[in-house]
Design a protein that fits this description.
With about 475 residues, this protein is an all-alpha fold. It has one domain: Amino acid/polyamine transporter I (Up-down Bundle). About 70% of the residues lie in helices and about 0% in strands. Strands 1-2 form a two-stranded antiparallel ribbon. The relative contact order is 0.22.
Amino acid sequence: MSFVTRRKPVEAEARSEGSHHLRQTLSWPHLVALGVGAIIGTGIYTLIGVGAGQAGPAVILSFAIAGAVCAFAALCYAEMATLMPQAGSAYTYSYAGMGELVGWIIGWSLILEYTVVCSTVAVGWSGYAQGFLVSHGWGLPAALAAGPWGEPAGLVNLPAVAITLVVTGMLLVGTRESATVNFYLVIFKVVALVAFVALTLPGFDPSHFHPFMPYGFNAHVDPDGVKRGVMAAAAVIFFAFYGFDAISTAAEEAKNPSRDLTIGIVGSMLACAVIYMIVAAAALGASPFNVFAKSGEPLAFILREMGHPLASVLIAAAAVIALPTVIMAFMFGQSRVFFAMSRDGLLPRGLSAVNRRGVPAPVTLMTGICAALMAGFLPLKFIAEVANAGTLAAFIATAIAMMVLRRQRPELPRPFRTPLWWLVGPLAVAGCLYLFWSLADITKVLFFAWNALGVGVYLAYGRTKSRLAVA
């Protein structure tokens, strides 16, 4: 069988792997919290400023477009996760639906999502942490609070490195233990956003929404070299919505996959969409977009400008405490993707070893170290866009895998069935392709260069080491 076309069986015996076996310890509240923890984070706490700078008040429309695309993708993920309750997420679905080479490419692309997202959120967390420390007179020297390509430039973003390594340590303690901590931090984070809305609504000014679309709808490059427009912003703040796919990486650890995964994926997506739209509207109504767009901590900045210094400190504190839930969720997801690739033989089998606490320690450590290095030296917007490219590839692959298996294996039991799959699937693919096209040219070049490197790695190692190749 050709390495291009050989496929992983849908009915894989994933749970009989001995030392490469993950424990079923998570129930649906853990999974909803994992999804909400991943989705609500840097996107609303920091990237709302980036998006407003690109689209103006129409950033609300950008949120709606990105959310709609994610909703279509979430429905595809819900079907595939319950059909194949195995670790690996889009990598596993692509492997079963389209073959080993495509599966590898998507697994390699997921590194751009999960590991890079960890770094992105760590950089966003650092901005809030530094602001919180400065307000108490404890700020770090500027050279230790920004990477060499940040604005302003520094030597290394030390807070971002530190929080990434702390989260890595938490994940090594145990899956259920870290999920429980995540659950309580998510509650704290949502309460903080509710407080922000309550404080800003009295100062709501409709005039801040005029002109509504100052930079137009389609993505374009302004004379100053900045890519603007509603779709340009949607392509960046798309980052604010994804995260539900991290739930699918926990499929093998769900106690009741057919029920828990559906509730986790669909429930977290719906809840976060509502929260995002309300918070974005409150922020824009409270302050002109060009005032808070350049702030590294826009929500706290808005509260300070409105005369709520204590509340701004508390919002910054909420971000400092709760944004690590995003790092935790995506680092968890990356470790499970690496785990699945290693167990399939596409990466060294030793990486999928599980310790006595049920944690794949080698891949968790590897993910944490890589994310810490990127967080220490790269700027937020750049790494956020690169992460988006990898995520869009994964969403496209999952939707295609869902449609392929609907056609080729219609008899398979599907606890959750994507409604109107023949429409939702193509819409998910088309929406993701449009968002990908709206990304900066350098982002697309880096994405294809990264995957060219990945194909080289596969041909040199995975092609001959794959379990299907040696079976």
